[in-house]
Amino acid sequence: MKKILATLLAAVLLLGATVALAENIAILVPNADHGWTGAVLTYAEEKAAEINAAGTYSARVIPASDPANQIAQVEDIIATESDEAVVILPYDNTLEATLQKLVAAEIPFVQFDRVIDAVAGDAIANVKGDNEGIGIESAKRFIAKGLQPGDPVLIIPGDNSSVPEMRNNGFFATLQENGWSDEQIAGIKSTAYTGWSRSEGRKLFEEWLEASSVDEIAATKYIFTHDDEIAMGILEALKGGAIDPAKKDAFLGGQVNLATSSGLNEIYSVLKGIHQNDYTAEVSKLADLFSVTYDPAMIQIAIQDIVDANEDKEVPVDHVIPVSVVDASNVDQFRGFGDAFAK
């Protein structure tokens, strides 16, 4: 009996030691407002479950409905000291002052995707896809397909965060390296921000067509969108009946090169020619359709970085994940996120 009690006591003490060593990690991400952030949330929950199952750390995923909600979440963590480490995909740049409070509270953190420069040097790591690389690869592809300095280009951007800024910076820098002047780059047209929304992307595309002449539409053969959701909005608009027929014909007859990014399964289905809505007719009239990778599963790398740093493993502060260009010729080699839409 004494031996059994001793064994139980040892087990309790061991459990107590494990709990004492455990570190609470808060993973803060925006709610699933579109496909990419929805996938981020799913991958974050998968990684948290893996960490919790291992038993050394306790991880929880906290979605935010808007910037104010995420600010409140961070401030609650600081006030209650409920978590010893944070991984955060900032909702937008309004989180800057709040993240500075996190720095002042000496709570280690990793930024993911949207990097707020003012606190980047204080972060354990800043994990992101190669946003500049997306712009670089898009510009290189356009140039390979015939883009000349001064040719009309339309950009349909994401939001006002660092992500679209870096994508545009890479795009513009590559154009400059290939003979574009500052004046020609300044002449590139851009729509308003889409907020990464398919419906807003569709709306802004339709508004651009409505505001442009048939000749202007036909001359714009290069469109750089910042996300696959936006590209899907364009395809849905072309398939729908809201566009003036003459302007739709001008667009589809213009042999447009359409650049997009992220890795949405729907775009991969379009590239494979298996999408249930059958965009074959629309895509066949494009000169080119390609998507540059920006994998939402990178959130798992960000979470692992905070774990590795806690275990004194080397973690790169500027942790950039390389990109790949996906088109109809190689799409079978890539795994998309979200639902696939097959015929």
Structure description:
Strand 3 (85-88), helix 4 and strand 4 form a beta-alpha-beta unit. It is built from 15 helices and twelve strands. The radius of gyration is 23 Å and the shape is elongated. With 343 residues, it is of the alpha/beta class. The model is unreliable at 1-22 (pLDDT under 50). The N and C termini lie far apart (67 Å). The chain folds into two domains: 2-129 and 297-321, Rossmann fold (3-Layer(aba) Sandwich), CATH 3.40.50.2300; 131-295 and 325-333, Response regulator (Rossmann fold). The longest helix has 20 residues, at 2-21. A six-stranded parallel sheet has the order 2-1-3-4-5-11. Strands 7-6-8-9-10-12 form a six-stranded mixed sheet, with helices on both faces.
Brief summary:
The protein is built from 15 helices and twelve strands. The protein has 343 residues and is an alpha/beta fold. It has a six-stranded parallel β-sheet with strand order 2-1-3-4-5-11. It has a six-stranded mixed β-sheet with strand order 7-6-8-9-10-12, with helices on both faces.
CATH topology of the largest domain: Rossmann fold
Q: Just name the CATH architecture of the largest domain.
A: 3-Layer(aba) Sandwich
H/E element sequence: HEHEHEHEHEHEHHEHHEHHEHHEHEE
Q: Distance N terminus to C terminus? A: 67 Å
Contiguous helical run count: 15
Strand order of the largest sheet: 2-1-3-4-5-11
Helix content: 40-55%
Please give the domain count: 2
Integer-rounded radius of gyration: 23 Å
Strand percentage lies at: 15-25%
Residue stretches low in confidence (pLDDT < 50, at least 5 long) are 1-22
> What is the structural class?
alpha/beta
> What's the story with the biggest beta sheet?
6 strands, parallel
Task: Name the shape in a single word.
Answer: elongated
Number of strands: 12
Supply the CATH superfamily name of the largest domain. Response regulator
